[in-house]
Structures are given as C-alpha cells and as structure tokens.
Amino acid sequence: MEVFKRKTRAIINLFLRDGVSFPSCITSLDTAFAELVPRLKQEQIPELRALTMANNETIMKEMERRGVPPGLNTAPF
Questions:
Q1: Assign residue 58 a region: left if phi > 0, alpha if psi is -120 to 50, beta otherwise?
Q2: How does 5-36 read in b/e, with b if 16+ C-beta sit within 10 Å?
Q3: Can you tell me the distance from the alpha carbon of 75 to that of 72, in angstroms, rounded to the nearest whole number?
Q4: Which residues contact 25 (CB under 8 A, 6 or more apart)?
Q5: Which of 25, 26, 34, 44 could form a disulfide with 15 if both were Cys (CB 3.0 to 4.6 A apart)?
Q6: Of 5, 6, 26, which is closest to residue 15 (Cα–Cα)?
Q7: In the 3-class helix/strand/coil scheme, how is 15-36 assigned residue by residue?
Q8: 0.85 exceeded by the pTM?
Q9: Contact 33, 5 (CB under 8 A)
C-alpha cells in the first residue's frame, strides 16, 4: 500500500506542478490501481478507498482551478 501511496502522490504532483493532462493523470492512476488490486488484502480496502477519495478530491479541485479545456463539451445529453 505504501508503494501505491508514493506512486499516486507522484502522479498527482506531476498533474499539479507540471500541467500533465487530466486524461493522462487518470490513466496513470487507473494503472497504479490495477497493479495494486490483485495484491490487496481485505483489511486494506478501507485505506484504499480513503486514499482514492482524497486523490479524486485533489484532482477535481485542480480541474476546477484550471477551468474547462477548450473544445470540451460539458453540456448534458
């Protein structure tokens, strides 16, 4: 779990500091998650959920700060 924490923190730092795109950030986080899940113990699930929620909150705040990228249609169906 510690390796996952470090890896996701590094991904989010690249997103925040270096302007990595939202899709690239999400893809990297999804990959890290997929690598962890097969090795996850049942008692680690609550910690993983909390970390995932915190990561999502950080990403969403940054996306709000950046605003909608040009050409991205946010209108509902």
A1: alpha
A2: eebbeebbeebeeeeeeeeebeebbeebbeeb
A3: 9
A4: 11, 12, 14, 15, 59
A5: 25
A6: 26
A7: HHHHCCCHHHHHHHHHHHHHHH
A8: no
A9: no
């690239």: which residue's tokens?
24
Contacts of 55 (CB under 8 A, 6+ apart): 8, 12, 29
In the chain, which ranges are continuous DSSP H helix?
2-18, 22-36, 45-66
Amino acid at 61: K
pLDDT tens for the chain, residues 1 to 77: 899 999 999 999 999 999 889 999 999 999 999 999 999 999 999 999 999 999 999 999 999 898 866 555 555 54
